[in-house]
Amino acid sequence: MTTALWFSGQGAQSVGMAKSLYEADGDVRELFSRADETLGMPLSKLCFEGPMEELTKTSVCQPALFLHGICVATILKKRGMLGELKAALGLSLGELTAHALAGTYSFEDGLKIVAERGRLMQEACDASKGAMSCFIGASIDAVKPYCEEFDVDMANLNCPGQVVISGEAEKIEAATAAAKERKAFKLVVPLKVAGAYHSRLMEPARAKFEKFLAGIEFKKPNIAVFTNVTGEQISDPTEIKKALVKQVVSPVKWELCVRNAAKLGIEQYYECGPGGVLAGIAKRIDKELNVKSIAEFGDFE
């Protein structure tokens, strides 16, 4: 059986995440111990006990979700459920988890990378007043004029009929209000986020992240990995670095990633991490995709 792994993005975190995995599996306990030591913070305690406001901080939730994804993948492998693993892909932050799983960099380096990415993005959020809004029942072509009119950016192209915009809070509010007033879309929903992710407001984070990655060794991934920047498979270590840097300020082309991975003839997809969000999105991309979401120990049955 051919398989692929999907990794969650920011926002999927919840207090108690991965606790049942930790209690049931020695390798997971070791991964948590290595994470706490590598980052010099009680990540395990924050995952299991919260508080939610601390776990939700970008600098905490990104390594927490990275760790959770790797733990799920580790148990899948131990149980012989991966068959012929052909690809790994992730939404936003999840793309970095996919690269760790694919051997682009080590588990410890991956933790350091996502922790620094989260810290820099939090810094950029604090230095600006950003917001995001989701246009439902919308095409890219229909949303593009709103981006131009209100000077904001497209941030997420997750599935057909769903486009997320991102930018300065006042401009996002104006674009949202205009779309509602004109009754141009099925629904327009402001998102509860700390800032304007995947927009030009993240430029300070992008520039510093580029410098940080310069000192870390990247290798060619041992399975197919897809970049959110273009939706295409990517394998050259130098190009992977460039893509991960660019992703901070670019739209996430998740739908394209999924469609291109499907061309590899994947029979079973596993969503590794909390929430089941990616499995829900998958139904809107292609109902034929066979996706199983695994967050806790009971989900393996």
From TrEMBL:
Keywords: Acyltransferase, Transferase. Residues 6-298 form the Malonyl-CoA:ACP transacylase (MAT) domain. It comes from the Bacteria. Gene3D superfamilies: Malonyl-CoA ACP transacylase, ACP-binding, Malonyl-Coenzyme A Acyl Carrier Protein, domain 2. SMART domains: PKS_AT (SM00827). InterPro entries: Ac_transferase_dom_sf (IPR001227), Acyl_transferase_dom (IPR014043), Acyl_Trfase/lysoPLipase (IPR016035), Mal-CoA-ACP_Trans/PKS_FabD (IPR050858), Malonyl_CoA-ACP_transAc (IPR024925), Malonyl_CoA-ACP_transAc_FabD (IPR004410), Malonyl_transacylase_ACP-bd (IPR016036). It catalyses: holo-[ACP] + malonyl-CoA = malonyl-[ACP] + CoA. This is Malonyl CoA-acyl carrier protein transacylase.
